[in-house]
Design brief:
About 30% of the residues lie in helices and about 10% in strands. The protein has four helices and two strands; from the N terminus they run αααββα. The chain has helices spanning about 20-25, 40-45, 55-65, 85-95, and strands at about 75, 80. Strands 1-2 form a two-stranded antiparallel ribbon. A hairpin with a 2-residue loop joins strand 1 (about 75) and strand 2. The chain starts with 19 loop residues before the first helix and ends in an 11-residue tail after the last helix.
Amino acid sequence: MLELGAELESRDLDKQPLSEKELDQLIGARDYKAFLNSRNELYRERNMAEKPPPRDRAVRLMAKNPNLIKRPVVVRGEQMVLGFDVTAYMKLVSRAVVKSGALARR
């Protein structure tokens, strides 16, 4: 993101995890399953690809296990990019200054 000229602000979710309320607000009306990290061990152990937990349970699990959240999460206003997607980052940066990191919000 720095290479794209973005101004960054980050939050280390391992040191400062999101609360259930913060996660619920972050997800909003979006599909919560997109926030689940398919590379996470818990995700694979519980076969979440085939049997995703209900939203409320998924939010609780992500709050307790921050590595279950797909990262980075880049937020600018109502726009959000989950995971590493340079093309999507470029679109955000071209519109304005983006704050990014493990969790970023403008």
